[in-house]
Design brief:
The chain is elongated, with a radius of gyration of 21 Å. It contains eleven helices and twelve strands. Helices cover 49% and strands 20% of the residues. The chain has two domains: 102 residues, Response regulator (Rossmann fold), CATH 3.40.50; 142 residues, Histidine kinase-like ATPase, C-terminal domain (Heat Shock Protein 90), CATH 3.30.565. It has 331 residues and is an alpha/beta fold.
Length: 331
């Protein structure tokens, strides 16, 4: 059993074949990699070491990867460690079973080093974001929703990326944006609203492309705001995510979201309008309340958006308009 001695992210690699572990340790040489040759060893190490991510092989003697995953998720001390499942073949049944048990992703042998490193970085960043959110005293459910939202956009982005160097460079740049937005550094500054929106656009762009949602943004107005630009960008991500999910749920033809920025009486306004159709006033009044909706994920996103905007000293509201909903942010 190997002890972690460096302040690098700790990755537990579980595989009953030493050659496979050696290959993974070579690819992940910049991380603190801890090997386990059996499921039993993996469970012990997960309890004794600070583990940030687990790469878990499915096919192992005595205790297979599914059983290891089940036990890890059933233990309060290890249930939040992200698990990437490693399979020999791209078996849809195994993958779906893994997701039901709580894995966050999968990778297929033989390993593609570029894909492996990118996925490891993504989920380590997500895990760090999850921990940061918890330290801000947000509920576990809110942290889970933010992580799920980020994963959705990241997975959509990954679908659009080829192995071309320029695409991988762009993906790396976008991943940096994800990390900045989902890690609250508490730094306050005067920023242009369009820059914050551009961060959110970069994060949600692939999702909109994959679902043929048109995003129209008025990026010409130089309106400014004071506060944390990354927190503001997170609010925009949550609003765009909510709007896109409503559009897809209602199967709107030619779905569209428009963002308008302007200043009135020295106050900056940002309007988000969609063409999602009718929603009753009672439903609108409850949008920001985190326990009264059937679609729990969406209302928590809006609750978090309201929480952040009010922390920044602003206001957020929702009103019906001709074609759907209009969210307004004043700051």
């Amino acid at each position: 059993m190997i002890k972690s001695t460096q302040k690098k992210p700790g990755i537990l690699v579980v595989d009953d074949t030493e050659l496979n572990i050696d290959i993974l340790m070579g690819i992940l040489k910049h991380y603190d990699v801890i090997p386990a040759l059996s499921g039993h060893d993996a469970l012990e190490i997960a309890l004794e070491e600070k583990i940030d991510l687990i790469l878990l092989d499915v096919v192992m003697p005595e205790m297979d990867g599914f059983e290891v995953c089940t036990r890890l998720k059933a233990d309060e001390r290890t249930k939040n460690i992200p698990i990437i499942m490693v399979t020999v073949k791209n078996m849809e049944q195994d993958i779906m079973r893994g997701y039901k048990l709580g894995i966050v992703d999968y990778i297929v042998k033989p390993y593609n080093p570029v894909e492996l490193l990118e996925k490891v970085k993504i989920h380590l960043d997500l895990h760090a974001c999850h921990l940061n959110i918890n330290t801000q005293k947000l509920s576990y459910r809110s942290a889970q929703v933010m992580t799920t939202t980020m994963l959705t956009h990241l997975n959509n982005y990954w679908k659009c990326v080829s192995t071309k160097q320029e695409d991988l460079s762009e993906f790396s740049h976008t991943l940096d944006t994800f990390t900045k937005v989902y890690n609250d550094d508490h730094q306050s500054e005067v920023f242009t609203i369009r820059k914050a929106i551009s961060y959110a656009k970069q994060i949600t762009h692939a999702t909109f492309i994959n679902h043929n949602i048109r995003l129209q943004i008025d990026e010409t107005h130089p309106a400014r705001a004071s506060g944390n630009i990354h927190e503001y960008a997170l609010v925009v991500v949550n609003l765009l995510s909510y709007a896109s999910e409503i559009l897809l749920t209602k199967q709107v033809k030619k779905p569209k979201i428009a963002i308008e920025i302007y200043i009135k009486d020295k106050v900056s306004y940002v309007l988000f309008r969609d063409n999602s159709g009718f929603m009753s006033q009672e439903q609108i009044d409850n949008l920001f309340i985190p326990i009264q909706h059937n679609n729990e994920y969406n209302h928590i996103k809006l609750y978090l958006a309201k929480f952040i905007i009010e922390k920044l000293g602003g206001q957020i509201a929702c009103h019906p308009w001709q074609l759907g909903l209009e969210f307004s942010i004043t700051l």
